[in-house]
């Protein structure tokens, strides 16, 4: 697959601290890539370096093989959707979308057609004459999106696109973004701190911590084969323990729980039961003094397990992963 | 009356007592005739044996005002000088306000203090200081002569240039402060978004920064233009005989000629002249301020 955007050994320091620390990353044509990490991990700085809004202290940025490290933001074929949306408050929705197109020299009917097309793509037909303050939060997000895609960039950068939306709208928008990306054939790079969001939308996820990329892979691979314990912790819940100076990891849903003794089982007592809707999580203290998190799907009758019950646990040996820290 | 209504009544009472009432008195005097008496104008009321039987008004002051070209020229000249000074103040003040708003946060307060610092000295003293700088034997002429750049002192003081200089100098803070207040609030993400969408720096300024700072531009221009039209001290001290400003005319009518009714009429017309830009400002304000 073609590499559309390449980050090569990029470092960015703010004062003494490195926000981005020697990151190398290839973004493939037409993929949906998520930069995932806690706040302060450098993901937004990396996105801003791609847009040209920050200058890296070291390293290069390539777009379609061309070094654009010194290219100002207005001359790069990428567009960014800001977390605050950054809609121009003194312009109508249509004028906001037309703004970027006018910079490309578009005018008259061709301009109007592109604005209409962009409004249609985000299902905001007929709202072109509104001012941003007359729109709901969800509509504003769509305008910001339309303003970017109207420019038909090579890469669309999205900085925490769901941060200002309520939970209900968030899930729907995730699906819509994914569908939109497939329809437009534009490479999307989204910055998020929410692993569920990253897994729901992205083809590949780059997990970042302290300015570095820990692992970049598909959501499935990250979940099933995390490169290290830090990545494993980031994706879902996991049981981690040290065994002869090695970190062992075991997903809670791979553990079998039963009142009756199990072959190769470990006995323990349920310390706590947490009902989570789709499953129930039991915290079991084993005879060895270790507390394991066990996820029990409701189909198996989770109601039967109560706090204080003596239970037996077992898991296939293949479910235990040995991870470097 | 509720407590809230009482609080709201306070500014109205203030305006009535110290603005509307004196204004009504001035209006009344403008319809009187000058005469040698105390006070030096004719009674507004016609009295017969102490009882008021009617009002006695004359429009002679206003007729003279519009027939004598001195007054008309003074109004136009004042408005023109104020307009040019406002424009110069804007051209000088906008980059200053922009630079302060874009300066690192810890430096901003220092820069603002420097803008406000001249207010700690009396306005009159500062204008006198300009006289000291500009006079033929003043610092500027002396320095230029000792450097051999000029042979004879330049006529700097008592020129219209000195009046513009004085007004721009004195009113610059009134332009910078409202502009700064506006520019400081400007969301940096908007400028980045404009650049990201393909706008070069000057286009970002023209299409985003400038339109969004327009309320500040209007407020600053009004704060400079209105007092500059009626300015008396600056043209009197720095201007020459050919600098005609309505403030000087007003002063002459009141103190030299002791013609209170005429000066009252000059004041009323000046007020009407100034109401026009204020109305314009009011009309533009809600349209330019689109922030929710």
Task: Please supply descriptive tags for the structure shown above.
heterodimer, A: 325 residues, alpha+beta, Rossmann fold, OB fold (Dihydrolipoamide Acetyltransferase, E2P), 2 domains, 6-stranded mixed sheet, 5-stranded antiparallel sheet, 8 helices, 34% strand, B: 292 residues, mainly alpha, MetI-like fold, two-stranded antiparallel sheet, 12 helices, 73% helix, globular, disordered C terminus
General description of the model:
The complex is a heterodimer of chains A (325) and B (292). Chain A has eight helices and 18 strands. Chain A is of the alpha+beta class. In chain A, strands 6-7-8-3-9-10 form a six-stranded mixed β-sheet, with helices on both faces. Chain A has a five-stranded antiparallel β-sheet with strand order 13-17-14-15-16, with no helix packed on it. A four-stranded antiparallel β-sheet of chain A has the order 2-1-4-5, with helices on one face. Chain A is elongated, with a radius of gyration of 24 Å. The two termini of chain A are 32 Å apart. Chain B is mostly helical. Chain B has twelve helices and two strands; from the N terminus they run H-E-E-H-H-H-H-H-H-H-H-H-H-H. Chain B has a two-stranded antiparallel sheet. In chain B, strand 1 and strand 2 form a beta hairpin. In chain B, helix 1 crosses helix 12 and helix 7 packs across helix 9. The chains are: A alpha+beta (325), B mainly alpha (292). At the A-B interface, strand 6 and helix 2 of A face helix 8 and helix 9 of B.
């Amino acid at each position: 697959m073609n590499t559309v955007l390449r980050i090569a050994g990029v470092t960015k320091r703010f004062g003494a601290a490195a926000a981005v620390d020697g990151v190398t990353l290839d973004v493939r044509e037409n993929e949906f890539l998520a930069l995932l990490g806690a706040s302060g991990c450098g993901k937004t700085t990396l996105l801003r370096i791609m847009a040209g809004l920050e200058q890296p202290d070291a390293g290069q940025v390539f777009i379609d093989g061309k070094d654009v490290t010194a290219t100002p933001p207005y001359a790069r074929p990428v567009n960014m959707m800001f977390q605050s949306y950054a809609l121009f408050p003194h312009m109508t929705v249509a004028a906001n979308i037309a703004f970027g197109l006018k910079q490309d020299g578009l005018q008259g009917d061709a301009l109007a057609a592109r604005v209409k097309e962009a409004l249609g793509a985000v299902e905001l037909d007929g709202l072109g004459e509104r001012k941003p303050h007359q729109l709901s939060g969800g509509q504003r997000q769509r305008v910001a999106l339309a303003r970017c895609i109207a420019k038909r960039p090579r890469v669309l950068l999205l900085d925490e696109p769901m941060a200002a939306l309520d939970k209900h709208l968030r899930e729907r928008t995730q699906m819509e973004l994914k569908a939109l990306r497939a329809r437009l054939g534009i490479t999307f790079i989204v910055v998020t701190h929410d692993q569920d969001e990253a897994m729901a939308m992205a083809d590949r996820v780059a997990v970042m911590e302290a300015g570095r990329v820990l692992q970049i892979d598909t959501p499935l691979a990250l979940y099933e084969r995390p490169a290290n314990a830090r990545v494993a912790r980031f994706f879902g819940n996991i049981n981690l323990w040290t065994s002869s100076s090695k970190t062992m990891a075991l997903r809670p849903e791979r553990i079998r729980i039963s009142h009756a003794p199990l072959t190769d089982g470990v006995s323990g007592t349920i310390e706590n039961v947490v009902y989570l809707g789709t499953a129930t999580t039991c915290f079991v203290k084993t005879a060895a003094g270790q507390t394991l998190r066990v996820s029990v799907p409701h189909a198996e009758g989770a109601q039967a397990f109560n706090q204080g019950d003596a239970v037996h646990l077992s898991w296939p040996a293949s479910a235990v992963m040995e991870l470097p820290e | 009356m509720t407590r809230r209504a009482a609080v709201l009544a306070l500014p109205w009472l203030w305006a009535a007592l110290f603005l509307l009432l004196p204004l009504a008195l001035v209006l009344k005097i403008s319809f009187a005739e000058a005469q040698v008496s105390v006070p030096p104008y004719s009674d507004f009321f016609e009295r017969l044996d102490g009882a008021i039987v009617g009002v006695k008004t004359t429009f002679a002051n206003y007729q003279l005002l519009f027939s004598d070209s001195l007054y008309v020229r003074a109004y136009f000249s004042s408005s023109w000088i104020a307009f040019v000074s406002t424009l110069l103040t804007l051209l000088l003040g906008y980059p200053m306000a922009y630079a302060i708003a874009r300066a690192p946060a810890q430096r901003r307060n220092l820069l603002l203090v420097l803008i406000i610092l001249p207010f700690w000295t009396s306005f009159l003293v500062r204008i006198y200081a300009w006289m000291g700088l500009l006079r033929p034997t003043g610092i500027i002429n002396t320095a230029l002569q000792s450097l051999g750049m000029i042979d004879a002192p330049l006529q700097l003081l008592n020129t219209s240039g000195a009046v513009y200089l004085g007004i721009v100098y004195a009113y610059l803070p009134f332009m910078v402060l409202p502009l700064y207040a506006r520019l400081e609030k400007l969301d940096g993400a908007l400028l980045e978004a404009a650049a990201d969408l393909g706008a070069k720096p000057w286009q970002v300024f023209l299409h985003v920064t400038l339109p969004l700072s327009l309320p500040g531009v209007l407020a600053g221009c009004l704060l400079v233009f209105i007092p500059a039209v009626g300015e008396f001290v600056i043209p009197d001290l720095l201007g020459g005989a050919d600098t005609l400003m309505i403030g000087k005319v007003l002063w002459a009518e009141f103190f030299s000629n002791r013609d209170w009714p005429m000066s009252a009429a000059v004041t009323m017309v000046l007020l009407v002249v100034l109401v026009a830009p204020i109305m314009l400002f009011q009309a533009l304000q809600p349209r330019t301020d689109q922030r929710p």
